Amino acid sequence: YDVVANVHGGGVSAQAEAVRHGISRALLNEEGELRGALKKAGFLTRDDRKKERKKPGQPGARKKFQFSKR
To answer: What is the pTM of this model?
Structure first.
């Protein structure tokens, strides 16, 4: 198979994983017997980590404003 993929957003590593995931799913549609091998290699598992939202009253998701004792 020849594959041409355009990817935008995220970093280089995340883009590579997204393309790998997409190719694996397409290959699974064509040849179902590859499911075991692809699953064992971890190519069918999507990395679903997202950016944590900024909370009100602080500058970021986890960072707190600088504490002043006095």
So the answer is: 0.74
